[in-house]
Design brief:
This protein is of the alpha/beta class. Helices cover 32% and strands 19% of the residues. The protein binds phosphoenolpyruvate and manganese (II) ion (MN).
Length: 332
């Protein structure tokens, strides 16, 4: 249940009510809001004099649900706005990892040429082997900062674990929580306390309900700016890296109020399939797409097989404008 408390209730009283009702207390649009389990369907006696309005739900997708906020949430990224009434699809592109100043600058210059505003690159990489390249760490964040200064981008970069979460939060404009960290409650709770948009990737073995409930950890911490990212789930299929769950995206669009970003690169795993998949992603009418592009994919230190080279990316980007236009969206 979500309860909006009446105005003028002191924060001490609100905290007392939260405790009595096993609820989380958060501020949303100047209101004090209590959220507890969706199994509670009736207002408790202790809340009767203090509730202005309350909402009940069939399951724990509450703050994220259209039943609570029918309009898609708006999230501001630099000067760009996604969600709300806008029909914008935000392009976020860049290499899998920052590898060197030369490498990141080359791709940054390409994005600038194409008028793309969001540069993506990981610096703390969640690899499946301890022997693979693990990312440049803090040094990489500094290079991303440099690109932001020089080119005016917003930067999206991922947090892998708690050891560097404060650095990532300090440097990023959008904090990416990767598929392998989707269940890390330390990261989720911390992201609930920050003032920056968080892009939460779906774990590759999680149901939509579990995915959205992970987003609820961030929302219920008080951060309203959560973006869901579908990046492929693991199925019996082995010819592609993952299976992009576009049916799931249709579900998320229908039932949640959170902006949605699609990542065809990690889903496909092979550059040859990324353009087709990316066109399908944009045709879904989502708020953003995340695409990996590298100046020399063969030499990439992570995800080499799936990154587009600059020429491939440029040609895809021009197609994506046409696809977006055909459904009344605009690539920003
Ligand atoms: C990435 O974006 O480079 C990445 C590691 O993604 P995921 O968490 O989806 O595997
Ligand atoms: Mn990658």
């Amino acid at each position: 249940m979500i309860v909006h408390l009446k105005e003028n209730i002191s924060s001490d009283k609100a905290q007392e009510l939260a405790k009595e009702n096993a609820a989380i207390l958060l501020q949303y649009q100047g209101k004090q809001v209590l959220v507890n389990s969706s199994s509670i369907k009736e207002l408790s006696i202790s809340l009767q004099d203090y509730a202005e309005e309350f909402f009940v739900f069939p399951n724990d997708m509450q703050l994220s649900s259209k039943e609570y906020l029918p309009q898609k949430r708006e999230v501001q990224i630099g000067k760009q706005i996604i969600g709300g009434k806008q029909k914008n699809t935000l392009m976020m592109a860049g290499p899998c990892s920052v590898e060197s100043e030369e490498q990141i600058r080359e791709t940054a210059a390409l994005l600038k040429e194409l008028d793309i505003n969001v540069l993506r690159a990981g610096s703390f990489k969640p690899r499946t082997s301890p022997y693979s390249f693990q990312g440049m760490g803090l040094e990489g964040l500094k290079l991303l900062d440099k690109m932001r200064e020089e080119f005016g981008f917003s930067i999206i970069t991922e947090v892998r674990d708690s050891t560097h979460i404060d650095d990532v939060i300090a440097f990023a404009d959008i904090v990416q929580v990767g598929a392998k960290s989707m269940y890390d409650h330390g990261i989720l709770r911390k992201c609930g306390k920050i003032n920056k948009p968080v892009l939460l990737k779906r774990g590759f073995g999680t149901t939509l309900q579990e995915f959205v409930q992970a987003a609820e950890f961030i929302l219920s911490g008080g951060n309203a700016d959560v973006i869901l990212c579908e990046r492929g789930i693991r199925t019996f299929e082995t010819k592609t890296r993952f299976s992009l769950d576009l049916s799931g995206v249709a579900y998320l669009k229908e039932f949640t109020n959170l902006p949605i970003v699609l990542d065809p690169s990690h889903a496909m795993g092979y550059a040859y399939g990324v353009p087709d998949l990316a066109r399908a992603c944009v045709a879904m009418g989502v708020e953003g797409v995340l695409i990996e592009v590298h100046p020399n994919p063969k030499q990439a230190k992570s995800d080499a097989s799936q990154q587009l080279n600059h020429k491939e990316f440029k040609s895809l980007y021009s197609d994506l404008h046409k696809v977006a236009q055909s459904i009344g969206h605009k690539i920003i």
